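Recall from the previous lesson that a structure prediction takes nothing but the amino acid sequence as input. Here we apply that procedure to Vacuolar protein sorting-associated protein 33B from Phodopus roborovskii. The sequence below is the only information supplied.
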Amino acid sequence: MAFPHRLDAPELPDFSMLKRLARDQLIYLLEQLPGKKDLFIEADLMSPLDRIANVSILKQHEVDKLYKVENKPALSSNEQLCFLVRPRIKNMRYIANLVNADKLAGRIRKYKVILTPQKFYACEMVLEEEGIYGDVSCDEWAFSLLPLDVDLLSMELPEFFRDYFLEGDQRWINTVAQALHLLSTLYGPFPNCYGIGRCAKMSYDLWRKLEEEEDGETKGRRPEIGHIFLLDRDMDFVTALCSQVVYEGLVDDTFRIKCGSVDFGPEVTSSDKSLKVLLNAEDKVFNEIRNEHFSNVFGFLSQKARNLQAQYDRRRGMDIKQMKNFVSQELKGLKQEHRLLSLHIGACESIMKKKTKQDFQELIKTEHALLEGFNIRESTNYIEEHIDRQVSPIESLRLMCLLSITENGLIPKDYRSLKTQYLQSYGPEHLLTFSNLRRAGLLTEQAPGDTLTAVENKVSKLVTDKAAGKITDAFSSLAKRSNFRAISKKLNLIPRVDGEYDLKVPRDMAYVFSGAYVPLSCRIIEQVLERRGWQGLDEVVRLLNCSEFAFTDMAKEDKASSESLRLILVVFLGGCTFSEISALRFLGREKGYRFIFLTTAITNSARLMEAMSEVKA
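The prediction returns the following tokens.
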């Protein structure tokens, strides 16, 4: 299919309906405890809840006081307690201790537990073991899709990455399938589905099962979204491990964007207090710079400041009537823009200060050398120096992982030397982290004779029939080789550039990494959409160790409008970075597509490393 050339972008579906649905369901659950009640909320649910139902909405439904679920005794005097928590064992124990303390004191109250996004049997088992199953009522709040922006939905499940890709825990797959089912009920059906990865395949199969059970709900409807693409995070760790250089990615790396908003400290606001700022398309200044390479942002902001000043200066020659119009219609907008402009200029200055201190240029140079496979010795020395100077345990770990994945595992001598230096520099408590990284295939050691062909020969000797694909994980860990170099060559991820790469007028998706590297995840999506499936990508799929987990499902396209076929929903299982979002937005603009993103959570290199770390910061 030839791409349409720079057509007007298709309209996005209105995702505010998801917020309304979640709010109505929560209110319905709260109303089941009529009268005044205190609400206990788990810390990491506070930000998402605030985006769905703020305090005033909760107060309208007779929520009296709000408490944080934490390790100290609750001092609530209310007769009705409601708990809004994630389905975790420790939360159940917390609730059990509270209820049992009341029983001991001879206090009778009503308790309601609301688990989100779903209720697990294990949680009810704990309540039963603790002897309070009959005293509390347990409900599920199926809130798994939070619209963070016009084109970005997040499940706000940061633990998905560790649970699935490290522990092999599959419980969240049902949550993903339910979320996809909800989307297809509201905006579906989706005529074309593509996916790659074990988790993607499992989520897809379960979602299809749910669709079959409720057959007929989306039959005969016209699809709003033409394509859906499911992708596992472990298909592409490299992109997530790189330093981000687009503005939104840098803000996330520097200040941490949490649930769509960021806390700018006094160094940004140039006052003595911090400010919480919502970063989305409604912030007109941010919307114009979010996908830009950082080197263009200052120029853009100063131009914007000059334009703003010119608009303010217009009032000098006005008569009374014009002045009245100016004050009533334009002034408020200009003031708002002025406020946002000074915030983003402050953020840029703060980022510059931090990056200059870290010697960011040198770091980026090393990353690019690793991606291209040049000067590996020099890069290894740089990483050693990074560890010895104790720059940051997370940063050093990230660079080691990048070296390991791009080099298909470290040679034993380097692995042992880097690991020893790391443990001596940052402390032996990091030992377990290395075991985790190895299990996840992020930091591995090449065993002698552990070339892939040797492994394949061993496997084929052992088993000659179809079961070869099902040999236990002992072999899957051997096969967790990244083959990054081969994939990079096949998909042309390192652009050949004559002369300087112009970051002001990007020519391809590589601009999100200063023109040095096209994100692998985005390239896969681009190629599959271009070919309408995996034909001709067999070698790439094999190198990704995903021969059994690449799938395509095309419906007869009789109902899909050409408008809907230019809308693509990309589902990242295990997290997605702002750089990937910027790269795909660029691709969309180039090819007349519009991408919508659904991710289990927003991630970046630091979050990835923290998820694997056994040493809590």
